[in-house]
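Provenance

Sequences were taken from public entries as deposited. Structures were produced by running a predictor on each sequence independently, with no templates supplied. The record for Helix-turn-helix domain-containing protein from Limosilactobacillus pontis is shown for reference.
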Amino acid sequence: MDHSIKTALGIKDVHLELDTNTKEDPITDHGDYIVVHLIQSYPMHCPHCGHLMYKNGFRIVNYHGADLHYKPTIWSIKKQKYLYPATPQCPQTVTKLAPVKDVQYRHHIATSIKQRIMMQLAKNESQTDIADDFSVSDWTVRRVINHLDHVFKPNSHWFPRHIAFDDFRSGRFAPSGMSMILVNIENHRTPWHHSFTPE
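Predicted structure for Helix-turn-helix domain-containing protein:
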């Protein structure tokens, strides 16, 4: 694949190439979105015995990729399937599917989009607006925010000298429909947010 095309699409996986054997052009504009036909095939070794696996056809998987010409893209990837039959060295039949470096396992949105959503969260924009900007659902934006919990985990082994607190209706985000927010009065930060059941 041409390096400039990979750069424009945000593809870093060296094994992804444009699929030129499709009936239509490898990059097709469908009006509201663009479909990029890709193929991924390379030698893979059995994770148990290390022998070279047999290529066992292809499986087409669609991923949501970065925008191209201000339109969302769908990466239609023809992924190589692999098979290694049971042998004395490897008593269990092994099947694998070529992984894509640019997409997390069992996810269907490119990592580059999630990274851009994280950067956009620093701005004063609603989740719905951010979702519209990247052609994803607002639940995807919320999952990205929830994933950041381990990065910005508060230190729960100390308390500030002065605490303000208030309860508010949080709807379906809490089992009881109510939540409580605690604020450090000195720096106006909100490191705590808890759900509670009102009496």
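Helices lie at 3-9, 111-120, 127-133, 138-147.
Residues 163-195 form one domain.
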